[in-house]
Amino acid sequence: MVIGSFYQVFFGQFLFIRLDISAECLKSLHEVSDYSLDAVDEKDRMRNFTTIFMKHIHECMGERFDNVYLKAQQCRKPYTTSFLIGFRIGKNWSNPITVGPLATDPTAKVFRELWKGKTQLRRFADTRICECMVWADKSSSAVPYSILQFIVVNHFNFPLECISWRSVFPDDFLSSRDVNSKITSAFASLSAILRSAKSLPLMITNIQAVSSYMRDTEPCASDVVCSSTWGAIENDHRLPIQRNIPPYLSYVDGLFLLHYC
């Protein structure tokens, strides 16, 4: 579990997507002059495409990552070109809003054109009124994926299916975000019950969780794991041998500060 937390903390900062450009998409690129400018062959056109594609990524979501790279990948599908795009995510990676310039700023028009006129005006606590692109009601790891979908569909006329997430971990290695959220909510409810308890010899003045769940770095939310085998057949008789794997239950550590009443 400690090793898993280590990988979650360090490798969890990197996310990858795969971009598959089909033959139909490649054909559409040939019809756009920007991709054929100074292009002698298909390799030059793809170089122009990747330059423009990365430019859009920086313009649309540059504040969400610290670094990004693009690398060509081998693809088994005929007439398909594939790329792997890696992100070193930043603190604003899952921000539900892309904040643009002030509504009165001359660059506001450029921002609206970048987002194809789908922006909204939002007023912030410091009285600023800015052009914004709203993706969700709250922070979500799905927001960057929605932005990438917007880029490939609205700027390149590619289908949504051409991009897909790739992970460093197996699909069943990391726990769902909902698990940590439920544990955090349960701990908060327990804390409220303990704080409201009366007729205790000591007064609870502080309750603090010390757990990887609360830091959102727990890779595997454990369940009860049991397995049984029915033994082997010997001399036409099955021996009823049963072996149970001891259940493993993880726990949430907590610190309680008690004072005399």
Automatic annotation (TrEMBL):
Domain Nrap protein: 27-157, 181-225
Keyword Protease: no
Subcellular location: Nucleus, Nucleolus
Keywords associated with the record: Nucleus, RNA-binding
A GO CC term attached to the entry: small-subunit processome
Broad class of the protein's primary localization: nucleus
An example Gene Ontology molecular-function term: RNA binding
One Pfam family in the UniProt entry: Nrap_D4
Any one Gene Ontology BP term: tRNA export from nucleus
Record keyword RNA-binding present: yes
InterPro entries to which the protein is assigned, alphabetical: NOL6/Upt22 (IPR005554), Nrap_D3 (IPR035368), Nrap_D4 (IPR035369)
Family, similarity comment: Belongs to the NRAP family.
The name this protein goes by in its record: Nucleolar protein 6
Organism: Dictyocaulus viviparus (Bovine lungworm)
